[in-house]
Structure formats: C-alpha cells, structure tokens
C-alpha cells in the first residue's frame, strides 16, 4: 500500500546517494549543514565538555579551595567506597525494580492516552481533555505526596471513612511491600498527560492520506490503528524507549526522599538518594561524581545495546 | 529534563518542611563546623577562649539566677548605648549569608539599611543565598576565589576540610579575640564560652561565633488537647503512655503525637536520663546509642507506635494546623521554633518538662549548640581593616536592651516601629523592611538570646518558667569544643544511618532485637573512631 | 468514517471522564486551598479543600504585595521568551543538520550530543565557566548555560527524519539549498514537534530556580520560581531552621497560591500551542 511503497522508495533514494566523495567535496556540499551545527556544538563544548573535564575529581579527593589541580589523586577509591557497601547494592536493586515497573506500567500509559485522545471525534471535547491532562505535571512532588496522603493516607479520606464504619485497613502510604507500585502510580498520575504531548505530535506527523487510503480499503478503526497510527509513531516510541533506558538508573529523587520515613530506607533508597545521603551531604564531591560517571557509563551501554537491537529489527534507533 | 535543577529546588522544600526537623532531631550531633583533617584537634586546646564579660543590659523583669535568658515583660524604657562611635570606615562590608525569608528590599530602597549604615559608618552589603542553596554557593564562591569580607561557616552543612580552608583563605583572628583581647569588643565578650567554643579550629579562632539559643529541642503541646487527662505533668513513662493512650481517638482523627519518630525518641531519652550524644566518665566516652537509657526511650517510642499514638502519615507539612485544630496533641520543636510558636500560634501552647521515666531515672534536658557556626574574615581583606570589621560585628552583636540591638532588630522608632504601653509594634514599612533584612544578618552575627514577646507577657512567662524548670537538668554536650575528623567527614552518613534505623525500629520494620547490631554498625562505621578522637582531644584538654 | 459502537463509546466516555476528574480534582483542591483563610486552615487541620467556606484572597494579597512577585514575573517572562527563542533556533538548526543523511561529521556530532544526555558536568566547573565568561549577575546566566538540551535535539532530529524523503529530493532537483529546505519544508511540516520542544524549553526556563540562586547574587534579578519558593519557605519552614520565622500565613494556602500563580502563564500559552498538535499536517503533502 501507500506506506510501504513510500518506504521502499525512500530506501532506493538513500542507496542512490553518491558515495565515495572526497572530504573537500563533502565539505563543499555540506557547509550549510555544518554551519547550522555551529551554535549547538559550540554550546555543548563550552558549557558541557569543558566543565565535564571537572569530572576527573571522581579520581581525586577534591576540595573546592584546593581546586581540581591542587586536590590529590586517590585512584579508584571513590568508586570502591560506593561499590563495597551492601546498602548501595540494595539501592541499585530498588532502583532497577522501580524502573522496571515504570517501563512496564508507566511507559505505555502516555502512548495509550495519546491514541485514545486521537481517536476522539468531537473536536471540542478533544481539545478540552488535551488541555487538562497535562496539568498534574506542574504540581511539585511535595504537593503530589500530600494529595495522595490526604486521599489514601493513614489519616486520609478513605481510611477516615472506613474508620467511622469500623473497618480498618492498613496505611497504603506506609506499606513497604506495595511502595514500588505506589510510586509508579504517582508517576503515572503526575506525568502521563504531559507524556502524551510528544506522541500527539508524532501522530500529527502521519500522512493523512494513509488514513484516507485505509478508509477507502474499508479498514475499521482497529486496523487503522494497527496499520497506520502505530507504524506511524513507532520510531518515536522506540526513540523515547531508548532514551529512557539511558536514564534507567535515575528514579524520582524528590519522591523518594519525601516518602522515606513512611516506608523506611530499605524500600525507598534508590541510587540518587543513596549518593545524596552518603556523599553529597558530607561534601564528598569525589564519590558523588564517581556515582554520576558510573550511571552515565551504564546508560551509555544500555543505549548502545538497545540501539543495536533496534537496528536488528530494521529500525533507525536514535543513531545509526 | 533538568533533573539537577528540580532536585535542588525540591531539597529546599524538604529541608524547610521536613528534613531539617529530622536532622536536628539527631540531637544536632554537631560539635561545631570545625574539624580537623590533619590532627588539628591536637592543637585546639591550648587556646584561651575570649574572656567572658557580661555586657551592661537593663535589669530583666524575671530572675536570671538559674541561667535563664533575660526576660522582659515590657520593653525596657532605658536603653543602654553599647557602642560609642560608628565603628566603620565608610567602606563596604561585604558578606555571604543565607535567608529562609523573602528577599529584603533593595538597599537603595531600604530606610532600615540606610539607617543601619549610618550608625555603622559603613555600607553593609550582603550576598544572600536563598534557603538551602548555601553549601553549593559557598563552595562555588570558594572555588572561584571571589570571597567577600565576611563568610558565614554554618555547622552541619557538609562543609569539608574547614581547618585547611580557613588556614588558606581566612585571617587568623586569635590575637584579636583570645583572652582579654576581646575586651576591645564588649558585645563579643558577652557571647559566652559555649558559643565561642564552636568557633575554635586548630587551636585558633578564625571567626566570630554566631550566638544562638543554648537551649535544645522542646516537647511542645496544645494544652487543651491534654485537658481530659489533667494536663501534661506526668509522673512516669507509664503514666505518660496511659494518659496519651486515652487521648487517641481514631474515629475523630485525633492522634496525640506528631509523626517525627526520631525527635520523639530524643524527647523520651530526656526522661530516662540518656546522655547528650556522648557520656563522659573517667576520660572514657559512651555514645548515647550504647546506653540502656536511650534504648529504654526507643522502647517507649515503639510502644507508642504500636498503640497507634503517632499521626499515621509522616512527612507532614501542616502539623501546626493540626495541633491548633486539636488533631495532634504534641510535637517537637527547636528552641527558637518554640519562641516563634509562642509569638504566632494562638492555641494554648505549653511544653512538657522532662520528668523521671522510672523511679530510678534522673531526668535531663539536652542543651543546644549555643551557636550557628561562626563568621570568618577573608584574607583578601587588608590586615589593617580587621579591627574595623570586628568593630562592625561588635555593633551588630549588641544584646537586647541596647540601642544597637533595637536598631538591628526593630529599626527606627516612628519609621519602622511604634512604642505603646511598653510594647513594640512594627509599622507596615517596618514589617516589609526589617525582618527580611535582619534574618540574613542574623546568620552573619547574632546576639545572646533574650525573651521579649511584644504584647504577650504571659507567653514570655511561660517560656521563662520552662527555662527555670529545665535549667537544673541542663546537660551540655561534653564534646563541644573538641574535634573529630571522622565527625566532619561522616556525620551526614552516620546521622542518616541512625535516623533511618530509629525510624525502622519505632515503626516495627526492624525488631528491637536487632538494636545491638545497629549500634555495632554505627560504631564500626565511624562512631568508634569519633569516640577515640574525642577521647584523645579531651585527654589533652 | 463509521461511528464506533455504542459500547465502545460508553467505555471511552467513562475512561475519559475518570481521567478528567483525576486531573481536575487536584486542581480544584489547589485553587480552593489557595483561597482558604488562616482560621479555616486551622479548622480543618491544614488539609486541602475544594470549596473554602469563606474564600479569601489573603494569600494572593500577601504574595503579590510589595511588587517582588510582579517584577519577577516580568523577569521570568523575558527569560522564557528570549531563552525559548534562542534555544529553539539552536535546537532546530542542529536537529535539522543531524537529520540529513550522510552529512560530513554527522555521526560524531550526534554522538557528542547524545553523550550530554548521559553525563553531567559538576556544579563548580559550570559556575567557574559562567564566571569566566563574565555572566555572574546577568540574565544571560539563566539562558546560555542551558541553551540546548540533547533530548530535544534528538526529538527534533527524529521528526525531521520521519519526513518523506521525496520532498527533499524533489526540492533538491529544483535547486533548493539546505537552508531553503529547512525553512520551506522541514519547519512548516514539523510545527507540532517545534511546538512541543518549545513548550519543553519554555517550561524549563519558567521553572529556572537553581541556576538563579547560583549565578545571581542580586536578589532583585531573581525569577519567579525563586521568589515564590521563598514564600513557601517563609510559610512552611521554622521547624528546624536556625532563626525563628514569622509564620503569618496558612502554609497550605500559600503553597497553593504559589502553585496557581506559577501555573497561570502556562495555562495561557498552552491553547496557542495546542492547535499545532491536534491535527495532521501532512495531508497530501507528497503530492504538493
């Protein structure tokens, strides 16, 4: 059909691009594009790569007044301090469990919601719902947690109602066993609507003529969803997934700190909170930098692997 | 997207609302900001502290014989002038400080600051860091070597290698402050030993202590809540528990205790006579966690939790409203927090005075640090200017009842406040200019606390009465003025370990049978090293 | 198009109603609570309320008096407008260049951008850089150090890449330069993603907090979030802080008034952006 012919044609065009040009030729051809890169690249060099050199303090016993050069080398000590603590590994395990839950439950939520919104026929309803679902994103975690407490907390509306009727249920907000589900639910509630925005944008980029062609072919909504919409946003979904993998070791720092006392450090300690309580608060720059480097390397490895996997399935991934 | 930024932002809230309560809970394990990386502790003791000389102040309305803060039911009519001539040299005095309040009006638009500058003979110029950003900005400014004249060193904010930093970038003020030299600055001589001890580093005085209340955490109540059981005078821990239990009413959403578990264990530990962090006997230290008394306090907290006496949801930002509303009966505050509640809360405020938990217990009351760190003078300042700056600080440190104190804390009569029947009332101008500017000043330099609550003499009496009752039980921290390298490097980690574990024990997530292994872990992770370092330091002293 | 089944429509209706309630209820709470007075805050134990019994604008009055908030709103609007425009230009340029296949140095540059998504430079080196460039106490310090976000570059690039190649090839045959193709083809067909990325940038500039307290010593230059946060500190703090703070406002209503004030501009801007991502733009684009 239309989609497949277009794709096939694109491939042909890619292949017909002239190969084996000299650098000079390519420079001549691409100078506009390179010029377009200049502001962005300059920014990254000046405000990212140069300051990033400071991350060398992961191998130093850094003190701000001594400066980076003046601080003594300590080899891998900062990494060792981090890795040899059993609590650190329990934080890693918590982090991974929460990310896994979020990938499973949170990640598809905005996609589903975007598809649902897109399927709405009434234009005004669509606009209205679209312009309210993103609102919770702007609540701070302090407010989100307080609101959850007010509704399902131990002294919240629900247990208050049940208490007056002589029923006692456990406090959902301070149950370490269900805590990971709770934080996932909070994230879904807070960010699901906001997350739809990018998928809605992806849906707008689908060529409307595909829908028309599908309608002419007599496809019902399920088939249109399956054969037009989903393939149309597939690459964006995949991109978001790969980027999320790169960030897999970071989960809601603020959310965790706020609920730490309620469920205990055993359930609420994640890598970021561990590094905060064991390094940053004691002014241990080296250790917290080491943790950041490790997280970045693991994220890089995951992105690399996921991207390779995507290529295997014939997708672009995020780079090629 | 910008996770670092949102994290910083958040921490402000957490620290303002929630976390700090937990930190200070650990009894403020502080021994001052200072600490030595390279055996500085060995040197700390040969120093002569600034000789204490009481400043001349108007006679307080209530007794001060037991060590209470001077209390005034009415504003003194005759003020003392403590500084004869403006101490400044007409130049800018720059400083780095913080605030938890809204930004003050710009200096050009602040009549308060203009008057202050006139009286100082200098231009007081603050770089004010908002709330929790202080350690970050401090370190950034240190790294960029762009120091203002006066830099505030807070305690317990994770600043590292303070002794080396002081030696590298700040003036040694020992010869200006030590012993009788301080007499040149009578208001600084009035700050007292407890405060000054926390300004000692490597046996030298690198800064001026920022005076702060010497009283520690207080167990506050809404007295109306406790009326049904005849008030808050308890005869034993059992009596407390039984009465508190009677006040629990789940159906009406009434829970007697605020959900700050660690703070409650601290309060209970007073009743059992646990030490103020460390106990000193025959040159040997014992940590409070190693004592039977502290464990007994923990057991009581566990019992309270099992009886459902704590409000069910921790990390609550609206405790005072719930106390006012009679939903929560008791909560823990810092002493200045007590003063603040006394000034602003309308409910029937009261404080539980420590009592003997068991017939054999000797109740105690833990003192606070007596300072919030110290303020050092950058060595970029010309040596000849040090005395001028100390003079300016001396002016700002004037005690209650002096003309200088009135100017710093209330502004100018008629412009910023009015006097009526022995009470002070801020004018609108005063309200916008004075508290917002005075708060950041109070981190650079403070004066000894005094009790004066305009329009509320009965609350002043309440606080004074509490001070009178706890004064005989006041327990100083034996390690104040002594330094431990391990403390500066590990205090954050150790206090997290302790507060996490105590919360787990109280809420039953860990059985009490594991307490011993927690204590062992605490000692292994740094507690034992701190003990050895403090013992060595005390032995030298 | 045929209408969906009754059951399907009912289900959809129920799901959407549930979602709408779940997101609007808290905003009702926020708005209601922001209008709650001190007495009522005490009477309900500081809980959030939907309908305050005696609505009062006390919290707003306190926050908006003194002019600090008004000034900071103007500052933030300026930073947000200027920052978003600059960021969008740099991001779209970079994203477009990287989306063109076979560009010289394309892959190294892309990898260089991606790496910034994974690592973070330290606070102190960044501060020193800003200081070195003389940007302490300037508004540039709130824009330039966060000018381009790798995530947004990747997103923009992906959308450009998804545009049909035929369009570019055809333009090329007509002798169009890359510059013209960017303006004539890529940007007009990608309004949706540009609106999205613009929104991301605008929100992050609007929320600037930490860089402001780090890079601006002059409090009169502070943007809205810093100023609002100070009201929350003031209303909320005192617990363990070192100096007694006058707690003259009900903590929850200040918190919510702050939230509402910070939200208003976003509420105002959103409808304008929304039109860009509600309907497809590629209808028959290939034919044209």
UniProtKB/TrEMBL annotation, chain A:
Instruction: Show the stretches that span the lipid bilayer.
Output: 31-50, 103-121, 133-152, 225-246, 285-306
Q: Which residues form the ABC transmembrane type-1 domain?
A: 92-306
Q: Which Gene3D superfamilies match?
A: MetI-like (1.10.3720.10)
Name its cellular compartments: Cell membrane
Its record classes its membrane topology as:
Multi-pass membrane protein
Question: What InterPro entries does the record point to?
Answer: MetI-like, MetI-like_sf, UgpAE/MalFG_permease
Task: Supply the CDD domains for this chain.
Answer: TM_PBP2 (cd06261)
Q: Which Pfam families match?
A: BPD_transp_1
Which keywords are on file for this protein?
A: Cell membrane, Membrane, Transmembrane, Transmembrane helix, Transport
The family note in this entry says: Belongs to the binding-protein-dependent transport system permease family.
Protein name per its UniProtKB record: ABC transporter permease subunit
TrEMBL record, chain B:
Highest taxon above the source species: Bacteria
Q: Which SUPFAM superfamilies match?
A: Periplasmic binding protein-like II
Q: What is this protein called?
A: Putative aldouronate transport system substrate-binding protein
Q: Which Gene3D superfamilies match?
A: Periplasmic binding protein-like II (3.40.190.10)
Q: What is the lineage of its organism?
A: Bacteria, Bacillati, Actinomycetota, Actinomycetes, Streptosporangiales
């Amino acid at each position: 059909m239309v989609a497949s012919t277009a794709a096939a044609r694109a491939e042909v065009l890619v292949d017909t691009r002239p190969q084996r040009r000299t650098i000079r030729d390519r420079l001549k051809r691409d100078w506009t594009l390179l010029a377009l890169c200049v502001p962005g690249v300059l920014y990254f060099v000046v405000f990212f790569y140069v300051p990033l050199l400071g991350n060398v303090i992961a191998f130093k016993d850094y003190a701000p007044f001594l400066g980076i050069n003046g601080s003594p080398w300590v080899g891998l000590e900062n990494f060792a301090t981090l890795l040899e603590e059993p609590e650190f590994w329990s934080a890693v395990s918590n982090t991974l469990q929460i990310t896994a839950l979020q990938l499973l439950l949170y990640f598809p939520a905005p996609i589903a919601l975007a598809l649902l919104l897109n399927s709405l026929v009434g234009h005004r309803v669509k606009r209205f719902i679209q312009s309210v679902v993103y609102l919770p994103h702007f609540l701070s975690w302090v407010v989100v947690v307080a609101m959850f407490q007010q509704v399902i907390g131990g002294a919240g509306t629900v247990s208050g109602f049940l208490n007056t009727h002589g029923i006692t249920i456990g406090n959902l907000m301070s149950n370490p066993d269900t805590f990971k589900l709770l934080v996932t639910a909070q994230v879904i509630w807070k960010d699901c609507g906001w997350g739809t925005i990018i998928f809605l944008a992806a849906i707008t980029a689908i060529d409307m003529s595909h829908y028309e062609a599908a309608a002419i072919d007599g496809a019902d909504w399920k088939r249109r969803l399956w054969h037009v919409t989903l393939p149309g946003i597939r690459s964006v979904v995949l991109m978001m997934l790969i980027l999320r993998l790169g960030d897999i070791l970071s989960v809601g720092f603020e959310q965790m700190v706020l609920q730490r006392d309620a469920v205990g450090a055993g359930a609420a300690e994640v890598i970021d909170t561990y590094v905060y309580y064991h390094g940053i608060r004691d002014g241990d720059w080296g250790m917290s930098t080491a943790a950041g480097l490790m997280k970045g390397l693991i994220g890089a490895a995951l992105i690399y692997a996921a991207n390779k996997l995507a290529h295997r399935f014939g997708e672009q991934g995020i780079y090629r | 997207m910008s996770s670092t930024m949102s994290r910083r932002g958040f921490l402000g809230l957490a620290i303002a609302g929630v976390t700090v309560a937990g930190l200070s809970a650990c009894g403020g394990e502080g021994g001052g900001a200072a600490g030595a990386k390279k055996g500085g502790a060995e040197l700390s003791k040969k120093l002569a502290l600034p000789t204490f000389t009481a400043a001349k102040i108007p006679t307080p309305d209530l007794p001060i014989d037991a060590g209470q803060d001077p209390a005034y039911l009415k504003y003194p009519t005759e003020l003392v002038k403590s500084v004869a001539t403006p101490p400044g040299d007409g130049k800018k005095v720059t400083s780095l400080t913080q605030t938890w309040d809204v930004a003050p009006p710009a200096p050009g638009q602040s009549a308060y600051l203009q008057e202050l500058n006139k009286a100082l003979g200098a231009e007081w110029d603050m770089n004010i860091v908002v709330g929790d950003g202080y350690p970050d900005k401090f370190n950034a400014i240190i790294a960029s070597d762009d120091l203002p004249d006066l830099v505030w060193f807070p305690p317990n904010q994770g600043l590292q290698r303070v002794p080396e930093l002081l030696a590298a970038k700040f003036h040694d003020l020992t010869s200006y402050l030590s012993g009788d030299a301080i007499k040149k600055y009578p208001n600084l001589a009035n700050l007292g030993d407890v405060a000054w001890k926390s300004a000692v580093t490597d046996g030298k005085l690198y800064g001026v202590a920022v005076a702060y209340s010497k009283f520690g955490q207080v167990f506050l109540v809404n007295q109306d809540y406790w009326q049904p059981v005849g008030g808050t005078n308890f005869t034993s821990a059992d009596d407390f528990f039984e009465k508190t239990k009677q006040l629990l009413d789940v159906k009406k959403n009434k829970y007697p205790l605020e959900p700050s578990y660690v703070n409650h264990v601290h309060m209970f530990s007073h009743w059992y006579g646990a030490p103020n962090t460390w106990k000193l006997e025959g040159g040997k230290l014992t940590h409070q966690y190693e004592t039977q008394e502290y464990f007994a306090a923990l057991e009581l907290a566990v019992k309270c939790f099992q009886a459902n006496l704590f409000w069910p949801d921790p990390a609550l930002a609206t405790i005072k409203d719930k106390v006012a509303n009679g939903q929560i009966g008791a909560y823990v505050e810092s002493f200045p927090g007590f003063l603040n509640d006394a000034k602003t809360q309308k409910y029937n405020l009261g404080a539980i005075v420590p009592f003997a938990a068991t017939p054999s217990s000797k109740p105690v009351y833990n003192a606070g640090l007596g300072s919030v760190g110290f303020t050092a003078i950058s060595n970029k300042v010309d040596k000849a200017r040090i005395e001028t700056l100390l003079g300016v600080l001396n002016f700002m440190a004037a005690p209650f009842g002096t003309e200088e104190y009135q100017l710093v804390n209330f502004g100018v009569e008629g412009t910023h406040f009015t006097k009526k029947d022995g009470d002070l009332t801020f004018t609108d101008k005063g309200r916008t200019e004075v508290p917002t500017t005075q708060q950041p000043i109070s981190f650079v330099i403070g004066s000894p606390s005094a009790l004066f609550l305009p329009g509320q003499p009965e609350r002043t009496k309440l606080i004074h009465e509490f001070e009178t009752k706890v004064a005989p039980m006041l327990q100083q921290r034996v390690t104040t003025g002594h330094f431990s390298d391990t403390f500066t490097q590990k205090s954050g980690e150790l206090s997290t370990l302790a507060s996490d574990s105590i919360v787990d024990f109280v809420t039953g997530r860990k059985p009490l049978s594991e307490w011993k292994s927690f204590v062992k872990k605490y000692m292994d992770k740094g507690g034992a090293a701190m003990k050895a370092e403090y013992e060595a330091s005390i032995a030298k002293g | 198009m045929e209408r969906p089944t009754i059951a399907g429509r009912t289900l959809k209706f129920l799901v959407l109603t549930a979602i709408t309630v779940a997101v609007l209820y808290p905003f009702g709470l926020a708005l209601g609570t922001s209008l709650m007075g001190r007495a009522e805050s005490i009477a309900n134990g500081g809980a959030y309320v939907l309908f305050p019994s005696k609505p009062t604008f006390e919290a707003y009055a306190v926050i908006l008096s003194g002019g600090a908030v008004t000034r900071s709103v103007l500052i933030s609007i300026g930073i947000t407008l200027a920052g978003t425009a600059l960021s969008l230009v740099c991001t779209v340029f970079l994203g477009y260049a990287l989306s063109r296949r076979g560009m010289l140095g394309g892959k190294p540059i892309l990898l260089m951008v991606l790496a910034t998504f994974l690592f973070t430079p330290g606070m102190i080196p960044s501060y020193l850089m800003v200081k070195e460039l003389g940007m302490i106490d300037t508004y540039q310090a709130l824009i330039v150090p966060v000018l381009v976000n790798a995530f947004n570059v990747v997103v923009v690039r992906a959308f450009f890449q998804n545009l049909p190649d035929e369009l570019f090839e055809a333009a090329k045959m007509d002798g169009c330069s890359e510059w013209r193709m960017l303006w004539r083809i890529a940007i007009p067909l990608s309004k949706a993603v540009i609106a999205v990325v613009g929104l991301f940038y605008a929100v992050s500039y609007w929320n600037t907090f930490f860089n402001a307290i780090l890079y601006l010593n002059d409090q009169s230059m502070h943007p809205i979030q810093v100023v609002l946060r100070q009201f929350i500190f003031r209303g909320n703090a005192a617990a363990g802080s070192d100096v007694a703070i006058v707690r003259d406002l009900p903590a929850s209503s200040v918190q919510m008034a702050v939230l509402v004030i910070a939200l208003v501009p976003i509420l105002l801007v959103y409808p304008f952006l929304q039109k860009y991502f509600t309907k497809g733009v590629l209808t028959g684009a290939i034919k044209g």
